[in-house]
Amino acid sequence: MAVSRSLRRNHLITYLLAGTLCLFFLYFFLGDTSRIPSLPYTAPRQLLKSKDAASNELSPASLPFKKSKQLQEGEVAAPPPVVHYLMNNVTTTSDPIGNRESVLILTPLARFYEEWWTNLCAMTYPHELISLGFIIPKGKEGNLATQQLQEKIQKTQAPTNKNRFASITILRQDSEPPVAQTEPERHALAAQKERRAAMSRARNSLLFTTIGPTTSWVLWLDSDIIETPPTLIQDLASHDKAIIVPNCFQRYYNKDKLAMDVRPYDFNSWQDSPTAKGLGEKMGPDEILLEGYAEMATYRSLMAYMGDGNGDARREIDLDGVGGTALLVKAEVHRDGAMFPPFPFYHLIETEGFAKMAGRLGWRATGLPNYYVYHYNE
Q1: Which of 18, 47, 210, 309 is the most buried (most CB within 10 A)?
Q2: HSE of 145 in the Cβ direction (CA atoms, 13 Å)?
């Protein structure tokens, strides 16, 4: 039986409508939704740069946020926008400046040193790509450090200063340091487990609060590292390593030579040894291995003693443990789950435990025995 012309026309219209709907759904799920005017959220962006301002206080802390005007009585605040982040576009390369890669510098701050702040501000990495994060303990010393830091920030972040940082976040802990803060007491063997567990919790709180979707690199820089090359960030990043740490020394007056001299300071960057592994096998689950103490001879190879003085600053070595005085980490390592264990992790804790945890996730640590940063001498 022949099909009527009107029925054939209806079939054709149905096919056209079905095809149009298919194209619309394909465009909706795969296309650029920023061109659809009815969507109530902000359009996806390829990559937010750290110089871009956050539009809401709930936005990532690594982006600068300008407080909005106070709400009038009965006025309701607008909800935070929905933003799409294409994380595959966040690069970590050997040319971080050329690729405009954002750096998050994180510092646990128990005491403020003028030399440390001067050194930090002298870094030549573009400050508009740097976000700063601090965590400060409770107590008189913490209050003083906070006051001194804020005084510097007011000057550095003044609108007239074209070299200001992208954003600055200050966290205050709800507890005081577990041990006294003089250098001998801080480094006593008996205080290490409690002290470093507290440091781990502080580092993790600071990291998880401040890392944002645009962060490419995280530089852990202790508040008593008062001297580094001004090109520290780009120098370390140029090696394109997941985790990389320079050699930390200390300048002091050598009474035997009657002149200024240098000596190793950070002994937490090391290559493991059979002796240390053997000690760990005999330990209970809550015991930790510590480096740099005569009471616990591990016979590990310490990077502190691997420097050649004036040797090649780009010389690399593999490490099993790292110190945190100056430590550059690709942000994807932290996003992968590597944090600072406040508990014994394979008998390691804090930064050394971090290196072990990162290793279990497939990330390797690298040391630069001939590239130096310097610790304050109390």
Answers
A1: 210
A2: 24
Ramachandran assignment for 74, one of left (phi > 0), alpha (psi -120 to 50 degrees), beta (any other): left
Helix (H, G, I), strand (E, B) or coil at 333: helix
Burial class (CB in 10 A: 0-12, 13-18, 19+), 78: exposed
Residue 6: strand, helix, or coil: helix
Domain presence at residue 62: no
CATH number at residue 287: 3.90.550.10
pLDDT at 77: 76
Phi/psi region, residue 55 (left: phi>0; alpha: psi -120 to 50; beta: rest), is alpha
Per DSSP, the residues of 258-326 read: TEEEEEE-----EE--HHHHHHHHHS-TT----SS-GGG----EEGGG---SSS-TT--EEESB--SSE
- Residue 223 pLDDT greater than 80, yes or no: yes
Distance, CA of 117 to CA of 146 (rounded, Å): 13
Q: Does 286 fall in a domain?
A: yes
Q: Looking at the domain assignment, is residue 4 inside a domain?
A: no
Determine the straight-line distance between the first and last CA of the chain, rounded to whole angstroms: 103
Question: Which two three-digit tokens encode residue 137?
Answer: 């303990």
In which domain, by residue range, is 243 found?
92-375
Tokens of 297: 């001879």
Of residues 50 and 162, more confidently modeled: 162
Report CA-CA distances (Å) from 14 to 18, 19, 198, 292, 370.
6, 9, 68, 79, 74
Tally of structural domains, the chain: 1
Amino acid 28: pLDDT? 52
The string of DSSP codes covering 296-311 is G----EEGGG---SSS
Whether 27 is covered by a domain: the verdict is no
Minimal CA–CA distance to 334: which of 353, 319, 354, 352?
354
Rounded to two decimals, what is the model's pTM?
A: 0.81
CA distance 20 to 26: 10
